[in-house]
Every structure is written in C-alpha cells, then in structure tokens.
Specification:
17 strands, three-stranded mixed beta sheet, Amidase signature (AS) enzymes, globular, alpha+beta, Amidase_dom, Amidase, disordered C terminus
C-alpha cells in the first residue's frame, strides 16, 4: 500500500516539515519504500545512497529541533539527474566509461539545492550523454513510463520525470537543450521548466557562451517546480551571463481568471512546420478553446522559427564535436550510432558555419522580442506524439509522415530553444489509452515566474496533475 506522503506536493511537504508535523526521516523512509517497491519496474533511479540519505535526514531533524534556520527545501528527498556532478556519488552520464566516476565537487545547481535543505538520495537515469528524448543507455537500460511501463518516459530527464510521477521524490532537477525538461514532463504528466538562459547559471560545462543547454526544475505541479526554481536561480561570478531576476509579485493565488485578457498565440503545428499526432491535438485543441472562453484572445499564430532548425542542429553538432570528437577518433565504437553521427556532423562544420548559426540565433531572438510585444503567451504541443514503445530507439513516423532520424520527432520543443525564451510543459490531458499529453507554454524572455504562475492557473482547468499512475506501475 502506498504511503500517502509520497504524493504530497513539495510545497505542502515543506510546510509539514517546518512545522514538525512530519520528520525528514519519516518523509525519507516513505520515499525509499516507494523506490524499493516500484523502481525495479520503471528504472528511474540508477544510483542510491540510502545510508547517506538517512544520516542527512536525521541531521536535518536535529538541526530543526535545535532551532537552526532551515532552507526552503528542508527535508525534501531528491535524486539528481545523472549528468549533474555530485560530490562523493557516482555520475555516469549514461555511459559505461563513467560507470565508476565519482566527482569531488557538486555542480552549482546541485550545491544550491543541497544548501536549501534537500536530502540527496541518488541519481536518475539519462540517455547516453543526455543525447535524445528517450531515456535508455548501455549501462542501465531503459526508463519506463509509470503510466504504462511498455512506453517511453521521454528524455533526457526521463529518469527524473518518471521518479516524480512514481512518487520517488517531490522535486527533481533536469537539463534542457532540445526539450529534455519539456518532453519527459509531457510524457510523465509532470511540469518541467526550461528557464530563460542565465536564470540558472551555466557553470556545469566548460563554455558559458553556449546558450542552448540550461538546467531547470521539475515538479508534479507548477507550484512545486517554482519552489525548486527559487533555490536554483540567481547570478554567480562564474557565469557573466547569469543574472538576478527581478522578483515578480502578483496579488492572490493563481486562478484561471489570470488568463482573462491575455493575448495568446496558439501554434498547434508551429505554423505548419511539424507533424503532430492527432491524439495529441485532440487533447490540446479543447484546452485552447477553454482559454478563449475565459476571456483570453487566442489566435492561430507562431513566432518566427525560420532557420531555427539549422541554428539548433549546427550549434548542437559543433558542441558535440568539441566535447567528444577526439574520443570518437580514438575509438569509433565508443558512442551509440546516432550520437556518433551527430559528432561526425560537427566535424564537417567550419568556424564560418558556427558564426552564421550564431547570427541566425541573434535574428531569432530579436524577432521573438518583437513577437512578444503583440502576445503575452504562446501555447503549443510539448511533444509531437504521445509516449511510444520503450523498446524503440525513436519513432519513425508521425501521422504517416516519415521521420529521417532520431531528432525529427523532437522539433516541437527544440525549435523554440534558439529563441532564448522560457518554456515549460504542463499536464494537459490524456489520450484515449490513458497516456499523458503536455501543453508547452512559452513566455517572453525573463518571464519565468509569470509562466509558472500561468501554468499553475492552467492546472486548475485541466486537473491532470492530480492523476497519478493507476496501472501496473503502482500495483
């Protein structure tokens, strides 16, 4: 029988912990029991330190009893994405050659989360080097969808999203270059925010000038994701492009009435640029109509995405070749075939190609800024299809349209990436077979907090966040 603590929201749990109605040890043990019961089926958590977590939880209780000030995440258990470096706990990046790699320091966002009082439990599964939106690798295998274990949990933060949906933890970190927070959130009925670049400092890699990859928060609700986001964001001298965002204040709690008067662009196929499964649009189209009925001005429109495909693929391939080109030359069998192909694509690029891609990104950012003088919000699919079979490498067609490679089905989130905007996926509904569908919401640069508030208001309309897995995954 499931302990009711594991599906309490992070905000609610944090309040219960601060008031000492429950202890950090009690909360941890409930989540460890849930992991023990269900993780063999979903394979979301791939490394654990139960003894270390128990010691940290006991210390958290002791400090609270002694009157020591606590952080906003006090006592909340979390397993970190397995591409985030965690001091004293292995970080594999989903690749066998790092199976025994134990970092000596934490990545900045990891340290901030721990400093805010969270209890480190383990690591969540990722694709090889987080490349792709389907979580499987040669080291740990595939992560499966808690709503249907025969289906994909998405990726690359697939382990994180599945862990949230399964009740293994109330908050989760992730990262997003081409949809790695948004896609798994859509597949697993949770919320994943890709922040405005700079909101969460880019100190985890070797290039602060690379704006495509960002770290961000996940939660079962937007409110929970916002709680984690508050701990992750903020400037640091190590990233000159990071910044302290202006605090946004709003009167009262989020409400569906927040949508009244908003100018919303609905882009179901991103202006005809992508195929989208009919069962996905059958969920999203009615939601757009509901927003219009609330008084929003909803129009079919889309930001200028011309050239975004090339910008994304060129900069992504260039970064892959810079990171792993020498390794691939030394050992052609080191990487899976599609990651190796992307690295080789990067080898073909010139400095001129990269510079022109950066010029293209500049144009897209400027056009997006102009677009948001006319609109307050963009809504679109977070994924072009519902969760697919976990045994597939990637889908090969959508609505009869053939897909050429493993990136083609991920365009719905990644075409927005070069625009430098905050974007999230929020639960919107289910297909007739009970698979989750997420709505992607995109806001103006720097509007992350407002976007989370609107997502919270939307949750009151869709009521999907409260629907937890009911199939084989919870029996």
């Amino acid at each position: 029988m499931t302990n009711e603590l594991v599906y309490r929201g992070a905000v609610e749990l944090a309040a219960l912990l601060r008031s000492r109605e429950v202890s950090a040890v009690e909360v941890l043990e409930a989540h460890l029991e849930q992991i023990d019961r269900l993780n063999p089926l979903v394979n979301a958590v791939v490394t654990m330190d139960e003894d270390g977590a128990r010691a940290a939880a006991a210390e958290a209780d002791r400090r609270l009893a002694a009157g020591v000030p606590t952080g906003p995440l006090h006592g909340l258990p979390i397993s970190f994405k397995d591409t985030a470096q965690t001091a004293g706990m292995r970080t594999t990046f989903g690749h066998p050659r790092h199976a025994d790699f134990v970092p000596g320091t934490n990545d900045l966002h990891v340290q901030r989360i721990l400093d805010a009082g969270a209890i480190r439990v383990g690591k969540t599964n990722v694709p090889e080097y987080a490349a792709g939106s389907h979580t499987f690798n040669r080291l740990f295998g595939a992560t499966r969808n808690p709503y249907d274990p025969s289906k994909s949990a998405g990726g690359s933060s697939g382990g994180a999203a599945a862990a949230l949906a399964s009740g293994f933890q109330p908050i989760a970190d992730g990262s997003d270059m081409g949809g790695s927070l948004r896609n798994p959130a859509s597949f697993c009925n949770v919320v994943g925010l890709r922040p405005t670049p700079g909101m969460v400092p880019n100190t985890d890699g070797g290039n602060v000038f690379f704006p495509l990859g960002v770290a961000g928060p996940m939660g079962r609700t937007a409110e929970d994701a916002a709680l984690l986001f508050s701990a992750m964001r903020g400037a640091t001298p190590d990233d000159p492009f990071s910044f302290f965002p202006a605090e946004e204040t709003h009167a009262g709690e989020p409400s569906p009435q927040d949508f009244a008067g908003l100018r919303i662009a609905y882009a179901p196929t991103l202006g005809g640029r992508i195929p989208v499964a009919r069962e996905v649009l059958d969920v999203l189209d009615p939601q757009a109509k509901v927003l219009a009925e609330l008084g929003a001005h909803v129009e079919l429109d889309c930001p200028d995405l011309d050239g975004s495909e090339e910008v994304f693929r060129v900069l992504r391939a260039a970064s892959f070749h810079a990171a792993w080109g020498d390794d691939l030359d030394a050992d052609p069998g080191l990487f899976n075939h599609f990651l190796a192909g992307n690295i080789r694509d990067g080898a073909k690029l010139s400095g001129r190609d990269v510079f022109r891609a950066e010029e293209g990104m500049t144009r897209l950012i400027r056009k997006a800024a102009e677009f948001f003088t006319r609109y307050d919000l963009v809504i679109a699919p977070a994924s072009q299809l519902a969760p697919f079979d976990a045994d597939l490498e990637y889908p090969t067609q959508i609505e009869g349209q053939q897909l050429e490679n493993y990136l083609d089905w991920m365009r719905a989130p990644y075409l927005f990436t070069p625009l430098g905007l905050p974007a999230l996926s929020v639960p919107a509904g289910f297909t007739p077979s009970g698979l989750p569908v997420g709505l992607q919401m995109i806001g103006a640069r720097g509007s992350d907090v407002r976007l989370l508030r609107l997502a919270s208001a939307f949750e009151q309309l869709s009521s999907c966040s409260a629907v937890h897995p009911q199939g084989a995954a919870v029996l």
